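Box 3.1 A note on notation
Throughout this textbook, protein chains are presented in two layers. The first layer is the amino acid sequence; the second is a token string describing backbone geometry. Keep the layers aligned when reading.
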Amino acid sequence: MAATSLPDRAHVVIVGGGVIGTSVAYHLTKLGFTDVVLCEQGQLSCGTTWHAAGLVGQLRASESATRLVQYSTQLYAELERETGLSAGYKQCGGVTVARTEDRMIQLRRTAANAAAFDMECELLTAEEALEHYPVMRVDDLAGAIWLPGDGKANPTDLTFALAKGARMRGTRVIERVRVTDVLIQHRRVAGVRTDAGDIEAEIVVNCAGQWAKQVGAMAGVNVPLHSAEHFYVVSEHIAGVHPDLPILRDPDGYTYFKEEVGGLVIGGFEPEAKPWVAPDAIPCPFEFQLLDEDWEHFEVLMNSALLRIPALEVTGIKKFYNGPESFTPDNQFILGEAPEVANFFVGAGFNSVGIATAGGAGRALAEWIVNGAPTGDLTAVDIRRFAPFNGNNRWLHDRVAEVLGLHYEIPWPNREMTTARPFRRSAVHHLLEGANFGSKMGWERANFFAPDGAEPTIEYTWGKPNWLEWSASEQANTRANVTVFDQTSFSKYLLVGPGAEAGLQWLCTADIGVEVGRSVYTGMLNERGTYESDVTVTRTGPEEFLIISSAAATERDKDHIRKNLPGAASAALVDVTSAYAVFGVMGPKSRDLLSALTSANLSDEAFPFATSQQISLGYATVRATRITYVGELGWELYVPAEFAVGVYEDLMGADAQFGVGRGGYYAIESLRLEKGYRAFGRELTPGENPVEAGLLFACKLKTDIAFLGREAVEEARAEGPRRKLVGFSVDAPEAMLWGGELILRDGAVAGQVTSAAWGQTTGSCVGLAYVRAADNAVINADWVNAGSYQVNVGGQLYPVSVSLKPLYDPANEKIRPRDHLNI
């Protein structure tokens, strides 16, 4: 029975009694936080949990996401033994079929991922797939995969089992109590207000499902999600359908099938969804309710189902379900402590994977709450990947119409969202004629430039794309002449005040106690000694530092810096991202180009590498920093936004003798990989440390200066790495890599590619990858160099040449000829 009395206080209050809220409660109590209250405005599971289809597919795009679901399946299988209540979980396996060769390439890549994650997965012919799923049609299929670890759970049973497990260790579950406000004192949670009274609390966890955006707003917290109508039907009994029948997914037909009482649950993810009402207009109460049937909208799914399961032609439909579910702008759920308010945590926006992910996500969020920080890599789902502007309801409405369909869309390399764009634009956006634009943190950024007369569009493919020749030309020009890149999307912060240096010394792995005008590349770590960010810090004054980071990291960087500044540090962080345009001027003729526009002395002696100066440029005054992310002589120009147009016109209007070209982010990616430069979110995550990443040179271990994570780094160095980051080039120019491919060493699984792209200078695809020994032993450079390597590209193996040094200009002669220190 649920508790009925409302306590005056609790250590933790959880808002929402769906599968996520009960999972968080269960795991908090398991970790020793027993003074927990869970408030549900209706009854447990009554919101969106109860009408979930209950599919539990283990294999995800990343290892961290896969491990979350793997834990879920383990937990669901054990809950009954602990609580006496079954989660309704059954491991029945899953078949995913391909109608096209493009889909089959994806499935081969999926099978390679499974090998990298040590999961069982089998490639099937159409006839072999029929053996697993005898009631489907297969004459139009190119093949399939079999995942024996897939299963299904009963959402309501699972929720009640988790709730009972939480109650057994002290959680008080209070139903029919609605939270109406979140109490805040000094930017910290103080409790909640309900329609039955107030509860004081040190921690509040927002697991309110599609109401999570409303609950977040009560605390001044941005939770970007929007509901969409989501459909499935349940058929009458079908001959040959039995409880052990696997889950069937037919993504080219947007559909999935699950056995239920001798019939089939038939659902899917149509290409263009139906957003529901705005998040602040969701009715209450909305308990165990559905929306109106919409057979017209469901038609695309039904027609596909009739094709795949011929027996449906003569089978009746028992029930039509149209239940709203919440979706996020990028199809990843939201987890973590909100940057706006201390001790306000969010677990919401599960994009139809809530049942599969609930166990792992609930444990991850509980560990974050108990430990004060994530215990693993949650970058992809971290709430801090969103900015306040992502909470605009009109923008969310239009974006969610596209997001739902991504579940079964082919996950094309470099796929760009098309809805709710253009969004954020740099001051020179209108001058980038012929550009194909991608989006990062809302910024419209040039991917590449099409030549005159060609359309700057992406024709998605697993092979060599239509734009490759154009990007290759940008790469070649950067190596031979000079290219201008609009890099305005960089995150930019100022840390100012008398405690700025001391604060950054604690936050940064490298020594930033440098003279004014020096720039330092550095990591920022957590207590575990793994990466929270990598940045460039320029000292612009005695008490002022300019910090440059990647576009996507703005909110998490600011939160990490503010939370970890030493208590005695007298320093303030200011976000100046939108105040400056950034132009990368890169190539061997960059000095010549800039010298034609400035009177400043740009020689090696007067303007060394890793220094920064204010210079005149045309009519403008800008900050010029001599640094590079492409491996050539170059400067990054930080231009006040109001001067950006003039500076860009001056750069592009320079004399033809300099060979000035325009470049996009695809060229930057290729050039940085030839040079072996790392990127946060791929090579550098909360799962990697500087020893593994080969970045000990950016750690001040030769000094006695303390920094966050130093002890963990020293321990990792003493122990030795169990995996190392290597650069590689493919020995076959016909192969096209995109990242995520499986790496083999001497025929055994050794790791995955973190980043890959076409390298025009090397004449083949290049990339970075972490490699490890089959027995997870400590490895060294000799071990790396002794191996023979291959890469699995859509099922085909190609030899690769691996190196611990940059593939291009390993001595750095191109960027600073008098100082060959490896940066």
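The longest helix spans residues 63-83. The two ends are 62 Å apart (CA to CA).
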